[in-house]
Amino acid sequence: MKRTILLFIFISIGFGVKAQWWKPQWEICDTVRYVVMYELILKEDTTHLDYYRKDNYMLSIGRNNSVSSFRGYGTYRGDVELKKAGDNGTSSELIKTGHIGKVYDGIVFSVHKFDIFKRYDKRIITTIDHIYLEGMFEYEELFDSFNWQITAETDTINNYICQKAICDFGGRTWVAWFTTEIPISDGPYKFCGLPGLILNIADTENHYSYKFLSIEEPSGSMVVYKVIEDVTKTTKKDFYKLQDKLKISHSIGMSSSNDKAVQRAVEYEMSKNNPIELDR
Fold it and tell me: Comparing C-alpha atoms, which of 52, 74, 62 is closest to residue 202?
């Protein structure tokens, strides 16, 4: 419960300045052919490596095999409920009356609020991420960012025969297990470019570990979507530079607040000294 409250504080602060986050505008990219679920186990604080967090993430693969999206499962559920409330014209009233929490009933927010899109035809990875108090930012990378070394080592994961591959990315060395039984060149987070779906992947220090949970074809009309309003285009280097700079300055300013909940949220944010990508 405390974790949900802290994350809600940051979402409220982070998106309330520049984005109408309670009424998202979507760009529908494709309908969903497969939903792949992963569990992320991460250690965000290098001073307390015995402490870890868990979160579920979903990879939505388009029916036309041209695009996929990757985001936290809690983020997806929140986006769906917020859009539903926005389309029904009820979100503004919920905010005015202080009942916005009703939209999030039963939803546990994702640890990280970002959306990652892979365009297979253009071989481009687009990341939409936020900096609290500043809004949403978008930057692009190429599939060629991953220089995989495929080994002969094999293993069986969830009844799929998998093969081991290694690459360096973001200042870490990653070990992936992919299966050609699902011939989709995709995986969790930004990882892609192998001749099959990545089921498990972790860095060699085991600070970040994505584990395959399931793959299924959705029964409803799910879509691969992007939240598109109030997004500032930038480069990856400039995004990380601004993120690191403002994390410190905003936290100093917010730490002077007399609100203990806000202070705890600031302490939580500052404790995250071990980002998934170390190269800044």
Answer: 52
